[in-house]
């Protein structure tokens, strides 16, 4: 317990040592993550840890904490360790079968809601490459008259999204299917959402370890130029949008012009773009020509 003032197997001692180890491993918020992992191991709230830092940690919880800490030191994502992640107003189950929902993607939800003068205008929603169901379920939570369909190539992802719909009280307004983009989809939708793979193939191994090692390459790799999925989407969208409908696509950094070019060639019109909190153009809104 070098450098830690608290004795033995106390809450404070575990937090201090874990914080030092996480910092040495290059974790950006080591103290916060140490609290999250210990609270999860003790099945308590983080604030409960601060009430009595000298409280003893039971052996069983200490064992759980040690196992989680070793996984985090190997750069496994926190969402995998905790089994969940927050997105919009929802708590979503996460597994290695899908991308972890990120705050940057909330820009897609914001752009989708802003694209209509009223949530009541959004009645039929399609989410292509749904993953955890994050985008679709966030929109459904804001649009009580809407029904949504989520599609993912991964059966595990489609099943996960269905569980998340049930856990958030949205199962009766959402259906999830396994398929390749919109190949098996009929009908037209007021809103089409997608967070497609958009990382250039050569860049995937260079991503931060949490992403490159632990998140599915299928959901990351956008081909040699990062645009493969956008080409498929641009071709499909004109046949999916209802009159007055909108598509909202997540973008990688610097991709707006290229994706707009693909959309225009397919007969779609760029309507708006929205930045994420980091200032990156993250959401592109498209409509019919």
TrEMBL record:
<dbReference type="GO" id="GO:0032259">
    <property type="term" value="P:methylation"/>
</dbReference>
<feature type="domain" description="Release factor glutamine methyltransferase N-terminal">
    <location>
        <begin position="17"/>
        <end position="83"/>
    </location>
</feature>
<dbReference type="Pfam" id="PF17827">
    <property type="entry name" value="PrmC_N"/>
</dbReference>
<keyword id="KW-0489">Methyltransferase</keyword>
<feature type="domain" description="Methyltransferase small">
    <location>
        <begin position="119"/>
        <end position="203"/>
    </location>
</feature>
<keyword id="KW-0949">S-adenosyl-L-methionine</keyword>
<feature type="binding site">
    <location>
        <position position="152"/>
    </location>
    <ligand>
        <name>S-adenosyl-L-methionine</name>
    </ligand>
</feature>
<feature type="binding site">
    <location>
        <begin position="129"/>
        <end position="133"/>
    </location>
    <ligand>
        <name>S-adenosyl-L-methionine</name>
    </ligand>
</feature>
<comment type="function">
    <text>Methylates the class 1 translation termination release factors RF1/PrfA and RF2/PrfB on the glutamine residue of the universally conserved GGQ motif.</text>
</comment>
<protein>
    <recommendedName>
        <fullName>Release factor glutamine methyltransferase</fullName>
        <ecNumber>2.1.1.297</ecNumber>
    </recommendedName>
</protein>
<dbReference type="InterPro" id="IPR004556">
    <property type="entry name" value="HemK-like"/>
</dbReference>
<dbReference type="InterPro" id="IPR007848">
    <property type="entry name" value="Small_mtfrase_dom"/>
</dbReference>
<keyword id="KW-0808">Transferase</keyword>
<dbReference type="InterPro" id="IPR002052">
    <property type="entry name" value="DNA_methylase_N6_adenine_CS"/>
</dbReference>
<dbReference type="InterPro" id="IPR029063">
    <property type="entry name" value="SAM-dependent_MTases_sf"/>
</dbReference>
<comment type="similarity">
    <text>Belongs to the protein N5-glutamine methyltransferase family. PrmC subfamily.</text>
</comment>
<feature type="binding site">
    <location>
        <position position="195"/>
    </location>
    <ligand>
        <name>S-adenosyl-L-methionine</name>
    </ligand>
</feature>
<feature type="binding site">
    <location>
        <begin position="195"/>
        <end position="198"/>
    </location>
    <ligand>
        <name>substrate</name>
    </ligand>
</feature>
<dbReference type="InterPro" id="IPR019874">
    <property type="entry name" value="RF_methyltr_PrmC"/>
</dbReference>
<dbReference type="InterPro" id="IPR040758">
    <property type="entry name" value="PrmC_N"/>
</dbReference>
<dbReference type="Pfam" id="PF05175">
    <property type="entry name" value="MTS"/>
</dbReference>
<dbReference type="InterPro" id="IPR050320">
    <property type="entry name" value="N5-glutamine_MTase"/>
</dbReference>
<dbReference type="GO" id="GO:0102559">
    <property type="term" value="F:peptide chain release factor N(5)-glutamine methyltransferase activity"/>
</dbReference>
<feature type="binding site">
    <location>
        <position position="181"/>
    </location>
    <ligand>
        <name>S-adenosyl-L-methionine</name>
    </ligand>
</feature>
């Amino acid at each position: 317990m070098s450098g830690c003032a608290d004795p033995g197997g106390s809450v404070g001692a575990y937090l201090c040592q874990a914080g030092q180890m996480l910092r040495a491993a290059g974790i950006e918020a080591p103290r916060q993550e140490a609290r999250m992992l210990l609270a999860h191991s003790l099945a308590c709230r983080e604030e409960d840890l601060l009430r009595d830092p000298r409280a003893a940690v039971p052996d069983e919880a200490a064992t759980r904490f040690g196992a989680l800490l070793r996984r985090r030191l190997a750069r496994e994502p926190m969402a995998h360790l905790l089994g969940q992640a927050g997105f919009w107003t929802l708590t979503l189950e996460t597994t290695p079968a899908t991308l972890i929902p990120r705050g940057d993607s909330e820009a897609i939800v914001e752009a989708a809601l802003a694209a209509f003068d009223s949530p009541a205008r959004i009645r039929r929603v399609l989410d292509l490459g749904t993953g955890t169901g994050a985008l679709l379920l966030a929109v459904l939570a804001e649009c009580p008259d809407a029904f949504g369909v989520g599609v993912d190539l991964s059966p595990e992802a489609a099943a996960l999204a269905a569980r998340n719909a049930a856990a958030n009280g949205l199962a009766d307004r959402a259906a999830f299917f396994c398929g390749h983009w919109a190949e098996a989809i009929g009908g037209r939708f007021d809103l089409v959402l997608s967070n497609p793979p958009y990382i250039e193939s050569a860049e995937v191994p260079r991503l931060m370890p949490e992403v490159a090692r632990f998140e599915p390459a299928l959901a990351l790799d956008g081909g040699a130029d990062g645009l493969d999925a956008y080409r498929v989407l641009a071709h499909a969208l004109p046949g999916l949008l209802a009159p007055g409908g909108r598509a909202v696509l997540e973008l990688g950094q610097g991709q707006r012009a290229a994706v707009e070019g693909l959309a225009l060639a397919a007969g779609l019109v760029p309507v708006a773009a929205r930045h994420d909190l980091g200032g990156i153009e993250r959401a592109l809104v498209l409509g019919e020509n």
